[in-house]
Design a protein that fits this description.
heterodimer, A: four-stranded parallel sheet, disordered N terminus, B: five-stranded antiparallel sheet, globular, disordered C terminus
């Protein structure tokens, strides 16, 4: 992908999605298309959202995580969150996603 | 310190970023904390996204819906969002207004997890986020005329500047 916010490490079958500095509905369009292609066509069942660079996130980020969870859940996969700062973590938990995602460092 | 800003922009998904950057630039003089800037940017992002997607029904980015080569460009041209910001001492207010379809049932729209567009992966958390990140939220709307979202935040509250 030429999009600067997306890079990919396909270690051990995990789909790693680098989230942008500011997560909004507009910026997620290309990441969503990319992720769904990988999940549906290339068989990635476990998704890692990397929030290393993310400072601001609105509710579209919640929709993004939830949407990918619904996809991979039926395929037996899981959704992981890595490098989320305290704020992003709080947003994800406040939205009630604490039960369906796993936080890792 | 008192200051005001008014910004009109075309209803495009790409302008969510513009709105966030403009509001952050406007805030600098009031010496907010990083946390407050992030709160306000998130809330503004929600309000502008609502206007783009729900009020005006613009569902994709320019490259997606083909308006870069004339598709919806003309239609979008007439769809504007107005953002008004004011700072008075430590009191910050922002209004995001559109002339879109309006909301028939505001109370319902503000319920957490309620969305009219689950197909777009809207989480139904937009108004909840605005409420959570700001000190005050008011929504006025008339079907067929448009929606105004008013938000307020006291920047003195979490150790931000008290202005004057």
């Amino acid at each position: 992908m030429e999009e600067n916010n997306i890079s990919q490490k396909e270690k051990e079958g995990f789909l790693l999605l680098h989230m942008p500095k500011e997560v909004d509905h507009c910026g997620l369009v290309s990441i969503r298309n990319y992720a769904d292609q990988k999940i549906m066509k290339e068989g990635f069942h476990d998704v890692i959202f990397d929030f290393q660079d993310t400072i601001v996130m609105d509710s579209s980020g919640i929709g993004m995580i939830l949407g990918r969870y619904r996809l991979v859940n039926v395929l037996g996969g899981d959704v992981y969150i890595i490098n989320a700062n305290e704020r992003i973590r709080k947003i994800i938990l406040a939205a009630g996603l604490g039960k369906i995602v796993r936080f890792m460092n | 310190m008192r200051n005001e800003m008014e910004l009109w922009f075309t209803a495009r998904a790409e302008n969510e970023r513009l709105a966030r950057m403009a509001v952050a630039a406007f805030l600098i003089e009031a010496d907010p904390t990083l946390e407050q800037i992030a709160d306000i940017k998130t809330a503004v992002s929600e309000a502008v996204t609502n206007a783009v997607i729900h009020a005006y029904g613009i569902l994709g980015t320019d490259s997606e819906d083909g308006s870069e080569d004339g598709g919806d460009a003309e239609k979008k041209e007439r769809k504007k969002i107005r953002m008004r910001c004011a700072i008075n001492g430590s009191d910050f207010t922002v209004a995001v207004e559109d002339d879109g379809c309006g909301i028939a049932d505001i109370a319902k729209a503000m319920e957490p997890l309620y969305t009219t567009r689950p197909d777009l992966e809207r989480s139904g958390m937009g108004f909840s986020f605005m409420e959570a990140f700001m000190d005050e939220l008011k929504v006025e709307s008339k079907v067929g005329e448009g929606t105004s979202v008013y938000m307020r935040k006291d920047l003195a509250y979490f150790g931000g500047s008290d202005g004057e």
